[in-house]
Amino acid sequence: MNDELKNILKSLNDDIDQEKLLHYINGKLPEQEQQDMEQQLRADPFLADAVEGLNQISSKEKAELLAYQINKSLKDKLQKPKQSRNRNFWNNDTILYTSIGILLLVAVIGYLIIRKVLG
Fold this sequence. Notes:
- The chain is mainly alpha-helical.
- The protein has helices spanning 3-9, 18-25, 31-43, 45-55, 60-87, 92-118.
- It has two domains: 3-88, no CATH class; 90-119.
């Protein structure tokens, strides 16, 4: 299978070799390793769900396309928060400096009004 599919599988349990998992899905594991994999699937529900989802893909071409789309989508979603943080104008420093500026402006206007009234 394509290396793109392996990228998705990297988030799975570190104890499981992705290549071994792909061989299990394709039915290419020796019987003892297949039994070991089935024990791991019973112990790890996340892994079992991943294998179930991968088994539902009908062809290798679809699997490669799906893997490419998932990886692209994940990269895009991970980049969006970084981009939105850079565009956020009202961060803590901006609010602080704006507040100080408004307080100084109010103080100066108050001083001028008091001076005019008293003076």
